[in-house]
Design a protein that fits this description.
The chain has 529 residues and is α+β, with helices and mostly antiparallel strands. 30% of the residues lie in helices and 20% in strands. Strands 1, 8, 9, 10, 11, 12, 13, 14, 15, 16 and 17 form an 11-stranded mixed β-sheet that branches.
């Protein structure tokens, strides 16, 4: 379908008017003023139990704090609400001692009972917490979450007194302290949750215990945070105010940054990559993350593993990373990046002839039925659109497929993934901690972050074995066996490339450290005088 020139003139005029309005709203940033950054989209929620996206975690990490927190440079877990932790019982017993000056924003003390309530809430099936499995290392947690036991007292967490939380694990978990710093395990304010229901995260209702408090949230415009008066480590927090902008139009965000309106741009429009990399304020670093596509294995034609494998074999990932990403990404036919001694499996080497044979075996193509149109779902972003268009072109050229694209805003995109309202959709996964398990436990049957409808009993058993295996080398081999199922045999996913962490950060920002998970705690940032 051709598009008239009048359409482009109208789009150009609209963009000019938007940027003019933004320039009026946002004066040039100056040293000592609010820290302003583009968060990429409107958050789905600010409820720690329900979030899954990086953009939500950036804000929630500023509002809330767990037993531990991440060091801003090394990401090592360090004491937070818990001033110290004692470990024993051959790695199965953790005793957290809560600091007396850890307070909620309403002045009430954060007590061990707040963690009991919050962890129970995460594990209660009705909450539908996607990351509930992060608590599965705790004894009895999985049985409670799956409804095999309705007595929460059987879960291995107790509060002998208000300042002590005792956690008993079902199995050794070398990254449990990392989990104790993860948003799913944050405490939430029982009084506010029970009083306001889903609206407890709105300004005026939200009670938090982190370095910042929520002062304003104008949907599709901005989220404003202020330095918390009751935060135990308030003296080390230098920013008085933080403003998070939700612009998924990266060209708009790039223009704001170039005009001095914001301090940090965590992503870049594809058309500006070559220009941006020449700037002195450009940064790039390794990233523990994979860009991939999900297949809905419950909907034809992607319910056939041969079709999924054909779609993977037909893709030349290097063309995408070189021409769309301008070299800012590593082509990947595997899912888990190298981490903690793990080396990924090779995956499938692109082979278009083999792809066509597999489609024929599945009954499609010459002499068979026509393959139905494939629809790609992606959330609004120039980058995601460019990758989807490149993928669609390759599938059309190699396999003769008809491919359509559907983009939606972030919240609808997440909802469509959750409800399997898609055929193929773009996705990304950033490791939650420095262990391969964070890339593999999400694909367990019924996992909250699975979102493909895929299930494999053998995979589930291998995962269970890996989580019981004390031998490091054997554990890594179990992960490799799981990855072969994921990317060589059944392919509920199509890996495309390993991310790089790239963006623009103004010279006056202090305390910003690149790291492999792209975690930049706002509590650690400051602006030069």
């Amino acid at each position: 379908m051709s598009i008239p020139r009048s359409f482009f003139r109208a789009q150009w005029l609209a963009a000019v008017l938007i940027l003019a309005a933004l320039a009026t709203r946002w004066p040039a940033v100056a040293a000592g003023s609010s820290f302003v950054f583009n968060n990429g989209a409107e958050p789905e929620t600010l409820d720690p139990a329900l979030i899954t996206g990086v953009l939500e975690m950036r804000v929630v990490d500023a509002l809330f704090e767990g037993l531990m927190r991440y060091h801003p440079e090394t990401l090592a877990p360090e004491p937070a609400v818990a001033e110290r932790c004692e470990m024993g019982g051959n790695g199965l017993l953790y005793t957290f001692h809560l600091r007396k000056d850890a307070l909620w924003s309403d002045g009430q003390r954060v007590i061990s009972g707040d963690f009991l309530y919050s962890w129970r809430r995460v594990l209660t099936p009705a909450t539908a917490a996607p990351y509930a499995y992060q608590l599965y290392p705790v004894a009895g947690a999985e049985d409670f979450h799956k409804g095999r036991n309705s007595d929460f007292s059987t879960v291995g967490v107790s509060a002998p007194d208000e300042a002590t939380l005792v956690v008993r694990l079902a199995r050794p978990c070398p990254y449990f302290l990392d989990l104790a710093a993860f948003p799913t395990l944050y405490p939430v304010p029982r009084g506010a949750v029970e009083k306001h229901g889903d609206r407890w995260v709105r300004p005026g209702n939200l009670v938090s215990n982190g370095a910042f408090t929520l002062t304003d949230w104008k949907p599709r415009e901005r989220i404003e945070l202020a330095r918390g008066a009751n935060y135990w480590d308030r003296a080390s927090v230098k920013l008085e105010k933080v403003v998070a902008l939700p612009y998924d139009e990266l060209e708009t965000a790039y223009k704001l940054y170039s005009d001095g309106k914001i301090h940090w741009l965590a992503d870049l429009p594809p058309a500006r990559l070559e220009e941006a990399r020449l700037r002195p304020d450009f940064y790039i670093a390794p990233y523990l993350g994979t860009y991939f596509y999900r297949f809905n294995v419950k909907r034809a034609p992607c319910d056939d593993a041969r079709v999924r494998k054909a779609l993977s074999l037909a893709v030349d990932r290097r063309l995408i990373t070189e021409h769309v990403l301008k070299g800012m990404g590593q082509p990947a036919t595997w899912f888990c990046p190298p981490v903690s001694g793990y080396e990924p499996v090779p995956g499938l080497t692109p082979n278009r002839e083999e792809a066509r044979k597999l489609l024929a075996q599945a009954g499609y193509g010459p002499g068979g039925k026509a393959l139905p149109e494939i629809e790609i779902l992606y959330n609004t972003s120039e980058s995601h659109k460019a990758v989807a268009e490149a993928l669609a072109q390759q599938w059309s050229e190699a396999l003769g497929l008809r491919v359509s694209l559907r983009n939606t805003e972030w919240k609808i995109y997440l909802s469509d993934m959750d409800t399997l309202n898609y055929q193929v959709c773009r996705a990304g996964w950033i490791g939650d901690y420095n262990d391969p398990n964070t890339f593999f436990d999400m694909w367990v049957t019924g996992g909250g972050n699975n979102r493909t409808g895929w299930s494999n009993p053998r995979y589930d058993e291998l995962l269970a074995q890996s989580q019981r295996e004390p031998d490091r080398a054997r554990r890594l081999e179990l992960f490799r066996a799981m990855e072969r199922i994921l990317v060589e045999d059944e392919l509920p996913i199509l890996p495309l490339y390993i991310y790089v962490n790239k963006g623009l950060i103004r010279d006056e920002v202090r305390g910003f450290h690149t790291n492999i998970r792209g975690v930049h705690p706002l509590r650690a940032l400051s602006l030069a005088d």
